[in-house]
Amino acid sequence: MVVDTTITHPRNYDFYMCAHAGMLGTSRPVHYHVLLDEIGFSADGLQNFIHSLSYVNQRSTIATSVVAPICYAHHASEGNIPIPELPMLHRNVRSSMFFC
Fold first, then answer.
1. Where in the chain are the domains?
2. Has this prediction a pTM greater than 0.90?
3. How many CB atoms lie under 10 A from the CB of residue 26?
4. CA 65 to chain centre
5. Which residue of 15, 38, 41, 65 has the fewest CB atoms within a 10 Å radius of its CB?
6. Using one digit for the tens of pLDDT, what is the confidence trace for 5-62?
7. Cα separation values, 42 from 10, 13, 48, 49, 69, Å
8. Is 25 left (phi over 0), alpha (psi -120 to 50) or beta?
9. CA distances to 42, 44, 46, 73, 82 from 50, in Å
10. Which stretches of 1-100 are assigned E, i.e. beta strand?
């Protein structure tokens, strides 16, 4: 669900999005402010892109209220999260993409 009229700022580009399904009133809409759009997204295009990003968080199997890049930036700023060492890669797969 997206709200981009009526309760938003009259001149600035902002909108509210609730990309996930909550249970019993636990949904958290996020208020997005577009500061600079160098790519030139349409309003619907940007909102669809942000909605798609709510499904790519590796810590969740469902859509999240806050999109993955923002969650990752938040976790990185905390600084005390242990980062596991990556496994050694076989030389046959070093130049190909894979998910681990």
1. 2-78
2. no
3. 9
4. 8
5. 38
6. 677 767 778 877 777 666 666 777 888 888 888 989 888 888 888 888 888 888 888 8
7. 18, 11, 10, 10, 21
8. left
9. 12, 10, 6, 16, 28
10. 2-3, 14-17, 30-33
Q: Give the pLDDT score at 88.
A: 81
Q: What type of residue is 88?
A: M
Give the CA count within 13 Å in the CB-facing half-sphere of 72. 11
Q: Is 19 exposed, middle or buried (0-12, 13-18, 19+ CB in 10 A)?
A: buried
Average pLDDT over residues 69-95: 80
* Structure tokens given for 20: 């996930």
CB neighbour class for 50 (10 Å; exposed up to 12, middle 13-18, buried from 19): buried
